[in-house]
Specification:
The protein is 74% helix and 0% strand. By secondary structure, the chain is mainly α. The longest helix is centred in the first third of the chain and has 38 residues, at 5-42. It is flat and about 60 Å long.
Length: 72
């Protein structure tokens, strides 16, 4: 079954919106957990939503596995 051009464009836009929204939604649990635990345990300040989003991105960079095929 062939899709028309508006349906294809709508599908592509939907995928981009989902890709953009999921990381933003994942920042809320990080913000909630940080603001619940860190100030009380370590005396650290609370974080905003954007700071939590940045922490999520930073931790993704720092904890990303860099294993490659090293066999010869």
């Amino acid at each position: 079954m062939n899709k028309s051009t508006p349906e294809i464009i709508g599908s592509i836009v939907s995928i981009f919106v989902i890709i953009a929204v999921i990381p933003l939604l994942l920042a809320f649990p990080i913000m909630w957990l940080w603001n619940w635990l860190m100030p009380e345990i370590f005396g650290l300040p609370t974080v905003t939503f954007l700071q939590a989003w940045g922490l999520m991105i930073l931790s993704g960079f720092l904890l990303q596995s860099k294993t490659g095929n090293t066999s010869k």
